[in-house]
Amino acid sequence: MTVHEAALGRYFEDFVIDDIYQHPFGRTIGEADCSWFTLLTCNTNQNHFNAHLARQNPVSGGRIIVNSGLTIAVVLGLSVLDMSQNAVANLGIDDLKLTHPVYVGDTLYAESICTGLRPSASRPGFGIVSMRTRGLNQDGDEIMSWNRAALLPSRESGVGQGYFPVAKVGPLSRSR
Description:
It comes from Saccharopolyspora spinosa. The protein is of the alpha+beta class.
């Protein structure tokens, strides 16, 4: 019997410059997502929650346009599994571009390319991974992009490993 220990995400040494990661999940944005996020962030722009007013918006084509803060958060979240699941810190996001509107009902996807790797000068056992991420809608339109850097541990650091508890009653078996 083989026990596969709980593990998720990549470590610094797993990345290769110019490798592209097409993140596996898509996320459809519903009207409730847009309304709740807009309320949560105290954004009072009615184009995010008032369908009647949104019909007058020449950019939205009369549809409710999704709060850009939500689209950024979703695309970032979609990238975490591959790029920063084990990160201990985000170090920066820059060159953020919002290139296509997102509407209620759109499904968002994300992909990233590793653009740089370097060992941390101040934290032995850690490295800085630089990446470019972009979000796509269901039609393949690029909706946004940015550059990001994150501090990731190496496997030798032990960070993010060995957290699964040992069962007090012993190993799992077919008969229990």
